[in-house]
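User: Can you predict the 3D structure of Putative CUB and zona pellucida-like domain-containing protein 1? Sequence below.
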Amino acid sequence: MHLSLYVTSFNIQPERHALELTGTFTSPEYPNLYPSNLNCTWHLQAAEGKVIELTFDDVQLEEDTSGQCYDAITIADPTPWSEFTPATFCDDGPFWPAHPIRFLSKTNQLTIHMQTDNTIEERGFSARYSQVQPRTEYIAAIGTDIASIVRIDRFSRIGFHRHLPLPGSTRPSALTFDPISAYFYYTDIQEKFIARINIKGDTHDILVDDHIDTPSGIAVAYITGLMYWADTRRNEVSVSRLDGTSRKYISLPDSGCETPRAVALSLDHR
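Assistant: Sure. Here are the predicted structure tokens for Putative CUB and zona pellucida-like domain-containing protein 1:
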């Protein structure tokens, strides 16, 4: 069984390649500078019943200095009924070189589109893909009265559930999930920390436990490898890498948002 890759470009005739279950592909001329006025699309198609895990290990695009995507990469699922939200990203920050940019498809197809303007060429990207089994979908819940995550199989008629204990936690408050690494990220408003635990419960890390008061909301941008959390009493939102390093504060005094309790992210990084 193979993946199929279809490539169309300004200088490449449409063609189809049968690929192994895992592999790599790059932007034109990588690791040298990509061409100007590039308009290139890669189409990944796995076997029926499989999904695609896509990871960008290296990305360098024209620097975004004015809030516009001069050169951009867009990831989408061409299947009309797919629940996958298209994501467009540019070169927009110092965190990019340190973390892979990761996607997991909802169906057996993904398209990757790269478009560039006529100024400033950069290195482009190197990506790898693999055909994997779909992940079982669970509903996960957390409450301040129980120091565990409750996982409920949404497709089970008997409502199968499992408790995942949270070491050192007394009042867990907010919860999110990274589907690529299979880690839950959560906050504790009593112990005042941000932590993560893998879905099996055998790996647990406290990521942030200083300069934190009431971390009441958390979100993970698994595409760029960042996490954000809202601190109600400190009246701020913080951002760091997924391991808690390179933390930055986003002050909110002029935004009209006081005592933030939750944070959400858009997949569009323009």
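The chain has no helices and 21 strands. The chain has two domains: 3-132, 138-251.
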